[in-house]
Amino acid sequence: MQWEPQRRADDPLQPVWDWLGRHWQAVLVICWLLLCAWMLSERAGAIRGFALPDTDDNLRMAQVRAWLAGQDWFDLRQMKLNPPGGFNIHWSRIVDLPIAALILGLRPFIGGAMAEKAAVAIAPMLPLLLAMFSLALAARRLVAPGAWLLAAALLPFAHGTMGMFRPLRIDHHGWQLALLALTIAALADPRRGRGGMVVGIASAVSLAIGLELLPYIAVAGASIVLRWVVHADARPRMLAYALSFGLATIIAYVVFASYANRQPLCDALTPVWLTTVAVACLAVAAIGIAPAETWRGRLLFAGFAGAATLAFFWFAWPGCHGRPEGVSPELYRLWLGNVREAKPLFAQDWPLFTGLSVLPALGLGGAAYCLWRARGTETVYPWLSVIVMSLFSVAMLVWQVRAGPASQLIGLFGCAGMVWTLVLRARASTRLLVRVIVPAGLLCAVPAASLVGALPIYPKSRPGPLRAKINRASRLCPTLAALAPIGRLPATTIFTFVDLGPRLITVTHHKAIAGPYHRNGDAILDVHHAFDGTPERARAIIRAHGATHLLVCPYLPESTVYKARSPKGFYARLERGERFDWLEPVTLPAKSPYWLWRLR
């Protein structure tokens, strides 16, 4: 399906469109550089302050530093959390590689501290280039060669998605989103073998980085198999996919799986998912070489392959039938169930609700329109994949808002296809106003819709005294200035909030007890039990962890959970001003947002 405007000799811009079509890769790189320059200028202050925005970003930085300092490639224990043994992180080294390479390359020229700041600013924008390229390539294949610029230009307006590519956002989600976009572009590749191979490799790398996009990986694989069911000519794509996915997953496991991930755990690329992928790929390869002349026979073979994979997973790994994190009911109740990004969309405020949901909804409608337009053509199959992914992403978004970035990204494909085709229809009109005004309105519609969450149409009120204190604490407590006096103390183990642990160990030489990671579940529970329980129990827990200091930031969001849940608990009593003889106050600057005590 190619929806391209007819060439018009009287169009003065026709040479421009022709040039853009011939040099689209170079123009795309220029657009990426301009976007990067804007993001760097917009985040310059945060980069100078090393304001890593999330606990995951801070822990990623700590992980890279430990590796550069000599930690074993396969040892992903974070020794500065839950000392003395540390705890294992379920990530891989894949995302560490570009960050470490930038630090090592820049350190001789600008010094270690500046090299780290430059690395965390540049690294998140590298997958942005892959995402933009994949969007443009998919638009050229699914819509029309000239639609690439429209698709790439829409990406900056997907605010949830773009948040994963901003400077300082060094967590792994940006790479996974870029690989998801590459997967969709490869599904539309007219060269069957190459398309199947790219989908397989992208799926394996995404799986090795993390399991967050596992459902989309499964949808991509199923769509390739179903395309073969309908058309036997799709056999080369399916065989290339099966072989590349299986082989790349094995290589990723051998090269990147940590010592801990060689155990049968459910939350990463471990023997659980390695064997499951291997069985699935062998089954798909087997049906690909089996004699099946009719679509009914191919459908039967595909059903056998799917059933064999599910049966293997179900009976071989019974411990992975539930949540992959494997957290206890108590840990879910006290911690994981309170994480905002794990809550459903309808539990959010209206600006966030509309800001996250408009693009996915438009994209789903646009993909359905493009699917109808593509009927009878080869592109109907990748559009079907986009539809299924869109439906799944919207369902996931309703369940948990953490699905927002992926949902918005998938929505861009449908939005680009719909806007492009409607613009072409308007340009074919005989009325001048329709040819001018309608395309301009359509080209502005998606960017305008993406801003609906920020429009002044929702009731605004000044934050109350409690909310003002929470906002102030959230703004000040993670800053280098606030943590600098604490960093000047002799290195020790500090007992503090779960969400403060990664930031504390990243910008000071101190150790902490816990971070918000499910493999650290016992330590997380200890922190909650200490702040929820009696002072005597808190003292026993703190001493059991070998901590010499207690650090709190009053009114940080985590503290409000303890105060609301246990109004007579240890933290609530501390915040009310009650003091205990086993805690000796440590003097901090007058404007410090922290309270610090030394254990007597």
UniProtKB/TrEMBL annotation:
The chain crosses the membrane at residues 23-40, 118-139, 145-165, 200-226, 238-260, 272-292, 299-317, 350-372, 379-399, 405-424, 436-458. It comes from Sphingomonas changnyeongensis. Keywords: Membrane, Transmembrane, Transmembrane helix. This is AcrB/AcrD/AcrF family protein. The keyword Transmembrane applies.
